[in-house]
Amino acid sequence: MSRDELVERCEIPRGNPQYVETECLLYFVRSTRIDNSDRYFDRLYAQLLKRVLKRLPNAERAGGEVESYSIGEIRDRMFDRFVTLLSEDHHLYSEKLDFFEIRFDSAMSRLRVDAERKVWREEKRTTGLSYDDESGELSKEVEHAAGEYDPFDVAEKSSTNYRLRLDAAIDELPAEQIRIIEMLRLGIPIDSNETFAVTIAKTLGRSEKTIRTYRDKAYLAIERFMRDGDDR
């Protein structure tokens, strides 16, 4: 079977008798390490990532109305970890991917457990914040308080020590909040009415409401870090 034919076989959807199991697809992707064909690797890699994305937890609640912060963060961590493992293995064999090649779904389940532990550990840092019991969003009072606090406005007028502590506070945030805060720091708007404008919502593929919620959580965590210091 030629390479083109193999790629076409790997594109066949589940349910078709000719469907290629993901364990086999991963084997083919890993095998490209020794045949030095980037084009072949790229095509198989794209198919593999599509399958990985389908196995990530759904980041939306029933009806698709409200995105779950925790699940969204877990998805990101799972995907980033898998891509990292695959990238490392593509350059130099790593036994860490062997289990994926034997029992892919079980390996993804383990990846989820690891991601959940890390995300929930980080969320404990914000348990002192007030949330609405029904929506799980920040309460109006807390949201208002966060909206009045701008760590970068203060940073412009503060000492070098403050800016160093601000950087340390940002480093303590969950990964997606860090991305949002750094983009705000660069002056990138959350959303825009201009069609071709670069925005945080477009860049991260999140709704404006979700970005604002993440921003408010981050600002509150930063404010508490700056107020209480490391011993909190």
Automatic annotation (TrEMBL):
InterPro entries in UniProt: RNA_pol_sigma_r3/r4-like
Superkingdom assignment: Bacteria
Protein name, as recorded: Response regulator receiver protein
Species this protein is from: Methylobacterium symbioticum
